[in-house]
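Page 47, continued from p. 46.
Same chain as before, 268 aa.
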Amino acid sequence: MPRPSHRLLLAFPLLFACQAPPAAPVPAAPPAPTVAAEPATSDEPLLRTYAVPPEQSRSIEQALASALSNGKDLPPLGTVERLPDGRVVVVAPPGIQDGVAALIAGLDPSKAPPVRTAELDYWIVVGEPAQAAEGLDTVPDIAPALQAIVASQGPMRFRLHESMHLSSLVDDRAEADGARIRARQIVSEVAGRLVADLDITVAQQAKDRGHLDLCAQGCNQLKSRVHLDLGQLLVVGQASLESGDAKAQPGLKTLFYIVRGQLRTGGV
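Result:
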């Protein structure tokens, strides 16, 4: 009778003993923390109004307008406007508004510069060639300027076309109409001298005020920026003038623009 085999029975325990134990489960890595995205800084312009010392509102407006300028070929970084009550309105991106706020917060009202007024006198004079100089003393205030014209261009007969006196706060605009002339000015002070932007329209004949608005023909115009020492007489321009009088003697007539500037402390 065959003997039972025990090899098979012994092989199973050996097989189980040689098998590697199952690997322990690896815990899943914890999810990375979520970082909230910071809101992007907006560059959209904001409108803000600033209360400033009234005595300094004009100079602040000028300074801010200059700082916001980006050159003549590019738009400005922002705009600034002075309200009638002296407050300043600025439209600009937030970063610029922060700088404006810091500037205004550092102002010292006790150190505000005094209000100054620029006063300009205008004389429009007609000159025509003559054998000897005439009319030099027609307006004594401008006699030195007329003498200088004679010295450089020869004897002339002078007559006053019209004169005007116009005052404006420094760095502010002023405008006035006369019978024959319209004057517009913006005057600044730089190192004790006046820098004046002038716009002068001169009609050849005295007409109603509407004529100065519509005189595309029959009017002379001068636009210029000039430097004036205080009290200085200056011939800022000249132009030929046609005679409107058919009985007038033939000859070239010249229109001379003469100005003088002064500066005083105080309002207009």
